[in-house]
């Protein structure tokens, strides 16, 4: 029988991600302010074996670290896998279910931040930011010419929190919005591809969405359309998108997520004038960190008290 962690006053939380120190700091401050003494948050040492660091852990915070079957099986008394973000495709849900360990995420905490980052990429592509920066360096005036977004059609794939937030922003600047959900029909998706001047991806990575934007989909897009991905890299078929850029079918590509991370900054794809990149920062804002910290701290406190955590995905 599991001991009562609140009575024992001992809980260890391991933040497994690397390169997200502002999130770690925010979560740690929120947890220490809201749960009883005895909760210890450790940060993974990237130079040491992950499995060894997990053995006495009660709560895993994966972040950008893959949590596979071996990782889930390592702790003797694992109580919660809490993703401090919306996406959880790097967690072996089947292995967690077999152990009876709840997996939770933090939905909606970064919705406004992601929507604003998507708009940033859309604007950068529409106003040809990379050629404009080169023109500035060359002291050229008035070039290159871009396009206005007002009156253009924005197609949003995935109408969850961030997709809905982007729809509101787009409407406010005069764009026509088309959107499809995971439950939408093939005909609705086809209409979005054919009518959209800009397509922005906001759906989770699943078996159904992996490679969703493939050669067939790109053959149906409006010539010169812009594509933005703030969701997950593998939703887009890389070979197909490179070919669509090369033949002019696609007018521009904005990326905040990639096919593998960390990415290669010397990759020729990312050097193209019609490609704009961000270093996976769409959800990285002070406001996102604060909201995420509050939600994660609340779930840790619930587990400590023996209560069911919120936002369970498996």
Brief description of this entry?
The protein contains 12 helices and 11 strands. The chain is of the alpha/beta class and 314 residues long.
SSE blueprint:
Blueprint: H1 5-8, E1 11-15, H2 21-34, E2 39-43, H3 50-54, E3 59-61, H4 69-73, E4 80-82, H5 93-99, E5 103-104, H6 111-126, H7 129-137, E6 153-157, H8 161-172, E7 176-180, H9 186-195, E8 198-201, H10 215-219, E9 225-229, H11 238-246, E10 250-255, E11 275-277, H12 286-304
Parallel strand pairs: 1-2, 1-3, 3-4, 4-5, 6-7, 6-8, 8-9, 9-10, 10-11
Overview of the molecule:
With 314 residues, the chain is of the alpha/beta class. The protein has 12 helices and 11 strands. The chain has helices at 5-8, 21-34, 50-54, 69-73, 93-99, 111-126, 129-137, 161-172, 186-195, 215-219, 238-246, 286-304, and strands at residues 11-15, 39-43, 59-61, 80-82, 103-104, 153-157, 176-180, 198-201, 225-229, 250-255, 275-277. Strands 7-6-8-9-10-11 form a 6-stranded parallel β-sheet, sandwiched between helices. Strands 2-1-3-4-5 form a 5-stranded parallel β-sheet. Strand 8, helix 10 (215-219) and strand 9 (225-229) form a beta-alpha-beta unit. Helix 2 (21-34) crosses helix 12. The longest helix is centred in the C-terminal third of the chain and has 19 residues, at 286-304. The radius of gyration is 21 Å and the shape is elongated. The chain starts with a helix and ends in a 10-residue tail after the last helix.
Major sheet attributes: 6 strands, parallel
Low-confidence stretches: none
Cα-based radius of gyration, to the nearest Å: 21 Å
Strand order in space, largest sheet: 7-6-8-9-10-11
Q: Name the average pLDDT.
A: 93
Q: What percentage of amino acids are in beta strands?
A: 5-15%
- The computed structural class is alpha/beta
């Amino acid at each position: 029988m599991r001991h009562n962690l609140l009575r024992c006053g001992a809980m260890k939380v391991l933040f497994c991600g690397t390169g997200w120190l502002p999130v770690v700091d925010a979560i740690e401050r929120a947890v220490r302010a809201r749960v009883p003494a005895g909760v210890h948050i450790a940060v993974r040492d990237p130079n040491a074996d992950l499995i060894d660091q997990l053995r006495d852990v009660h709560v895993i915070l994966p972040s950008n670290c893959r949590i596979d079957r071996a990782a889930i099986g390592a702790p003797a008394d694992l109580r919660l896998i809490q993703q401090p973000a919306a996406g959880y495709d790097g967690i072996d849900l089947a292995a967690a279910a077999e152990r009876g360990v709840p997996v939770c995420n933090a939905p909606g905490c970064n919705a406004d931040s992601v929507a604003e980052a998507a708009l940033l990429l859309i604007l950068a592509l529409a106003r040809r930011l990379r050629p404009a920066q080169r023109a500035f360096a060359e002291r050229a005036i008035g070039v290159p010419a871009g396009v206005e977004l007002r009156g253009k059609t924005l197609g949003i794939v995935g109408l969850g929190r961030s997709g809905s937030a982007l729809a509101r922003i787009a409407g406010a600047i005069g764009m026509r919005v088309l959107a499809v959900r995971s439950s939408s029909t093939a005909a609705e998706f086809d209409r979005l591809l054919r009518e959209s001047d800009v397509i922005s991806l906001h759906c989770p990575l699943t078996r159904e969405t992996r490679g969703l934007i493939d050669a067939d989909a790109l053959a149906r897009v409006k010539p010169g359309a812009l594509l933005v991905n703030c969701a997950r890299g593998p939703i887009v078929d890389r070979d197909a998108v490179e070919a669509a850029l090369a033949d002019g079918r696609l007018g521009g590509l904005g990326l905040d997520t990639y096919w593998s991370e960390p990415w290669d900054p010397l990759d020729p794809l990312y050097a193209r004038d019609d490609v704009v990149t961000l270093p996976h920062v769409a959800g990285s804002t002070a406001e996102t960190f604060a909201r995420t910290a509050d939600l994660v701290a609340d779930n840790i406190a619930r587990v400590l008290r023996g209560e069911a955590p919120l936002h369970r995905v498996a």
